[in-house]
Design brief:
- By secondary structure, this protein is an alpha/beta fold.
- It has a single domain, classed as Rossmann fold.
- It contains twelve helices and five strands.
- The protein has a five-stranded parallel β-sheet with strand order 2-3-1-4-5, sandwiched between helices.
- The termini are far apart.
- Bound molecules: adenosine monophosphate and magnesium ion.
- Magnesium ion binds next to loops.
Length: 287
């Protein structure tokens, strides 16, 4: 079985040009149907591992999803992360910052949403918008955004080292044609028309600028402690397969253990359960 963690990770220090990455790649499977059993197996394992994480209460996992419009960020939340137990999992969408948020440093609104011990946090967009949309549209001057790559790396290192968090960052890579065809499908599907915004089409004019800013993000912020993965995402099912496998393998490596019981099980059994059985036997006899 292919090791997608190894295949798609951005090795720290490597200079990324996205034209060298094929968004159409889909490995050995030819269709959703043939990939489905493997995806389902991954989701089942993810559920078991999350149960352990919650019980052990030592590790946490932060999943960052970035990509151009219609790359499938919402789809990953729905199809891959949907099976997780909500008591140990929080998903946050980062939209345009409010007045109060922009009056602070760019990480101020992000920090409260990082995962607590025992839990998983999903960022649908993230602090990376502050070196993506902000840079493309000149929402902050270069002398401000150019410092943010190091600030982001420092912030992520803090979370990893201080709170035993594992960070996985996924760039969902689609082609420009695939984006247009997804916009068209939204236009024709009453269930999804609500997702269309004027800015989606306007942002297409900035496609090349976004690619360049993403390349910088991938080059400067893929680190040992918080690696980026470039996920070929023209095929939604392959995107789900690759991401679910990477998450499962990473969680498996945490080697999480269920905590030992803190009570005297034998005593409890004797005192409450055998007594109860005895009581029932007594009742049965009386009847
Ligand atoms: P959506 O994910 O489609 O709901 O759109 C959210 C919008 O918020 C996108 O257009 C993002 O570019 C924008 N956004 C998110 N974070 C920021 C930020 N820090 N500064 C400016 N715009 C942002
Ligand atoms: Mg959108």
């Amino acid at each position: 079985m292919s090791n997608y963690r190894k295949k798609f990770v951005v090795n720290p220090g490597s200079k990324i040009r996205l034209k060298h990455f094929d968004p159409d790649y889909h490995g050995k499977h030819e269709s959703h149907k043939s990939a489905l059993p493997e995806i389902q197996e991954n989701l089942k394992k993810m559920d078991e591992l999350q149960y352990r994480m919650y019980a052990e209460n030592k590790h946490s996992l932060l999943i960052v999803l970035q990509g151009l419009d219609a790359a499938g960020k919402d789809g990953v939340v729905r199809h891959v992360l949907t099976g997780l137990n909500p008591s140990g999992c929080v998903s946050t969408n980062f939209k345009e910052p409010t007045k109060v948020e922009v009056a602070h440093d760019f990480l101020w609104r992000v920090h409260p949403h990082v995962p607590a011990k025992g839990s998983i946090a999903i960022f649908n967009r993230s602090h990376y918008e502050d070196v993506l949309v902000v840079r493309v549209h000149g929402l902050a001057p270069e002398k401000v955004w150019s410092k943010r790559y190091d600030q982001i790396n420092d912030f992520e290192r803090l979370i990893v080292t201080e709170n035993n968090t594992t960070i996985l960052k996924f760039f969902l890579h689609i082609s420009k044609d695939e984006q247009l065809s997804r916009f068209k499908k939204r236009l024709d599907d009453p269930e999804r028309q609500w997702k269309i915004s004027d800015s989606d089409y306007k942002e297409r004019e900035y496609w090349d600028d976004y690619i360049k800013t993403f390349e910088d993000v991938l080059t400067k912020t893929s680190t040992e402690q918080a690696p980026w993965f470039i996920i070929p995402s023209n095929h939604k099912w392959f995107r789900d397969l690759a991401i679910s496998q990477i998450i499962v393998r990473q969680m498996d490596d945490m080697n999480m253990q269920l905590p030992k019981s803190t009570v005297n099980l034998a005593e409890i059994r004797r005192e409450y359960h055998q007594a109860k059985d005895g009581e029932n036997a007594h009742r049965r006899k009386k009847r």
